[in-house]
């Protein structure tokens, strides 16, 4: 696959969900644990699997994975817009966006 740029999108100044200027992590819109599975290899090419990334703060990242399973993420929540349509994600992000950059939610966000 020479010639394809496999770099993640450039890191923004703030979380792509809550908008806070906090340390950011890469959220793979197609979870990395699924990259080797035949079903996802057929549906998404290597470039898409590796570069479909949202830069999010730790709190948003933890919340996403606490609310949604990996297959659910890959099947239905492969974009910022899709994530924001999920009522629990949207409510958390809207609440967190009012907090200062260093704020860390105390309650565990695990919901399974």
From TrEMBL:
Domain of life: Bacteria
Alphabetized PANTHER family for the sequence: HNH DOMAIN-CONTAINING PROTEIN, TUDOR DOMAIN-CONTAINING PROTEIN
Protein name: HNH endonuclease
Native organism: Halomonas stenophila
């Amino acid at each position: 696959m020479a010639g394809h740029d496999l770099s993640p999108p450039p890191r923004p100044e703030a979380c792509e969900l809550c908008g806070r200027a906090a340390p950011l992590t890469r959220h793979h819109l197609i979870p990395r644990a699924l990259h080797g599975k035949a079903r996802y290899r057929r549906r998404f090419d290597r470039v898409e699997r590796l570069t479909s990334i949202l830069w999010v703060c730790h709190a948003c990242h933890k919340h996403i994975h606490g609310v949604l399973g990996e297959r659910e993420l890959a099947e239905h929540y492969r974009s910022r817009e899709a994530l924001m349509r999920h009522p629990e994600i949207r409510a958390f992000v809207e609440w967190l966006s009012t907090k200062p950059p260093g704020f860390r939610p105390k309650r565990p966000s695990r919901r399974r």
